[in-house]
Amino acid sequence: MDLEKLNKWLTLLANIGVLAGIIFLAIEIRQNSDAIRAQTRAQLAEEVTELFSVNMNDQGYATVLMRGNNVEELSAVEQYQYYRHRSAWANHWLNVAYQHKMGMYDEAEFKLQMTNIRRDMETFPGLKVHWCAWRHRSSPELIEALEGDLSGSYCTAIE
């Protein structure tokens, strides 16, 4: 009888150990997810810093971006520079939308980013022209986030 009681106690302790292990694992997964989200945020911030720093160090390049944003005439080389720069930004936006979709980017911050992008598109006509030419390469999530329920009419006015 004592051996049976001991066996039950050992089984109970083993079950408690398994439960404690599962709880510990859940806590570790949560902490790891938080760390991944923080790392994702840092990576996206680094991308933006890189994109901004490109034109901060070269006045000629900055001038090309300013003229392109205002839909002023650009030479073939300048058009290429402008297109590549804006495509890098669009790829960044696509990355932000993907990270948000995967749960790695905070909802409030995502909405703020999309609001800022829409504001920039309204401020800089060249940016909107580029987006409308580039949007077919984008995800439905990013199009929805940037254009909302405009049902494609966002770009119709400039096409």
Q: Concise description?
A:
With 159 residues, this protein is mostly helical. Helices cover 82% and strands 0% of the residues.
Main attributes of the structure:
single chain, 159 residues, mainly alpha, 7 helices, 0% strand
Which structural class best describes the helix and strand composition? mainly alpha
Q: Please give the alpha-carbon distance between the first and last residues.
A: 87 Å
Q: How confident overall, as mean pLDDT?
A: 83
Q: Using DSSP, what is the number of strands?
A: 0
The low-pLDDT segments are: none
Q: How many strands, what sense, and barrel or not for the largest sheet? A: none
Task: Give the CA-based shape.
Answer: elongated
Helicity, in percent?
A: over 70%
Rounded to the nearest angstrom, the radius of gyration is: 25 Å
Describe the structure.
The structure is a single chain. The protein has 159 residues and is an all-alpha fold. It has one domain. The protein is elongated, with a radius of gyration of 25 Å. It starts with a helix and ends with a helix. 13% of the residues are buried. Helices cover 82% and strands 0% of the residues.
Topology, element by element:
Blueprint lengths: L1 H55 L2 H11 L6 H26 L5 H17 L1 H10 L5 H8 L5 H4 L3
Helix pairs in contact: 1-3, 2-3, 3-5, 4-5
